[in-house]
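Lay summary. Proteins are chains of building blocks that fold into shapes, and those shapes determine what they do. In this project we predict the shape from the chain. Here is one chain we studied, written as its sequence of building blocks.
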Amino acid sequence: MKIELDLKTLVTLGGIVAMLSSFVYTTTLRLDNIEEQVIQLEEEQAKLVRRTRVKSNKPKIQKQKKGTKHDQKK
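And here is the predicted shape, written in a compact code that computers can read:
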């Protein structure tokens, strides 16, 4: 059982291997980039949650306007 490979077959196989390896490389690169962006967004979201919790814990002072219906009923 002898395997004969001519130049056309070797070039075709080499092209397929190169194409598949470049596909894997670019896919991995894109996934790494997306993971970094997700981490950054999670950090920003955590900061915003902390800010809103701090703001919501402060007591709010409500000022009543003179001449409103509420004041006239009293």
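What the prediction tells us: The mean pLDDT is 84.
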